[in-house]
Write a structure and sequence with these properties.
Distance between the termini: 22 Å
CATH topology of the largest domain: Rossmann fold
Strand order of the largest sheet: 6-7-5-8
CATH class of the largest domain: Alpha Beta
CATH superfamily of the largest domain: P-loop containing nucleotide triphosphate hydrolases
Structural class: alpha+beta
Largest sheet: 4 strands, antiparallel
Number of domains: 2
Number of helices: 9
Oligomer: single chain
Length: 220
């Protein structure tokens, strides 16, 4: 399924699927089967020009499912959808492997969606595959950080650096690679030194941060 579903607006959902079915020389029963899977059976005889974008996305997935499929490739399947539509399509994609025994490959730049949908991921930049593995393996490549909100920040930064720690300032907070650091000991050292610690937590990087680390910030 390509990024923007292309259907004949003057035809019904079933008529659009019939065109694809004839090209594939698939069984006529495939139309009802595909519609049942994506759950727009009640729209079967309605003209596509009256469909919402979410309904068109479901119809496009139904087109891709016609015939016996081992691999389903979806390009930006939630593109342009509202929160409710995104949730519906995401759940459909997650259910397809167990329902049909099909592998689903999703191409997307919306990394939060990838994180909520995929079991395995691949990161491609400039035509090179930089990573391939499970989400757990990908997240393990990035170490958690200690996030600290402390006052006065500039003096606390110098204090921590004098302790031999590498500290970054982001969004008015200090970040230190956790590694084997004792979080409680860091907090205690700051308080004993007279600094006001208003926030301290251990944060794991999200998929977007890890992606930027691996690609070096490459947006291609």
């Amino acid at each position: 399924m390509v990024e923007s579903p292309s259907c004949y607006g003057n035809l019904t959902a079933a008529e659009n699927l019939e065109i694809t079915r004839k090209i594939l020389e698939a069984d006529k029963k495939e139309i009802d089967r595909a519609l049942e899977i994506v759950n727009p059976s009640q729209w079967k005889n309605k003209k596509v020009k009256n469909f919402s974008l979410g309904m068109k996305q479901r119809l496009a997935i139904a087109q891709a499912l016609l015939g016996k499929r081992e691999l389903l490739i979806l390009d930006e399947p939630t593109n342009g959808l509202g929160p409710a539509g995104i949730h519906e399509i995401r759940q459909l994609i997650k259910n397809l492997p167990s329902m049909l025994g099909v592998t689903v490959l999703v191409s997307s730049h919306i990394l939060s969606e990838v994180e909520l949908t995929a079991t395995s991921v691949g990161i491609i930049s400039r035509g090179r595959l930089l990573f391939q593995g499970t989400l757990e393996e990908l997240k393990a490549k990035s170490k958690p950080e200690i996030c600290i909100e402390v006052y006065p920040q500039d003096k606390a930064l110098k204090f921590l650096e004098n302790k031999g720690l590498k500290v970054k300032v982001k969004e008015n907070r200090l970040f230190i690679k956790k590694n084997s650091l004792d979080v409680a000991a860091v907090n205690r050292a700051l308080v004993v030194e007279g600094f006001d610690v208003t926030h301290l937590s251990v944060v794991a990087k999200n998929l977007e941060d890890i992606f930027l680390e691996i690609t070096g910030g490459d947006t291609f």
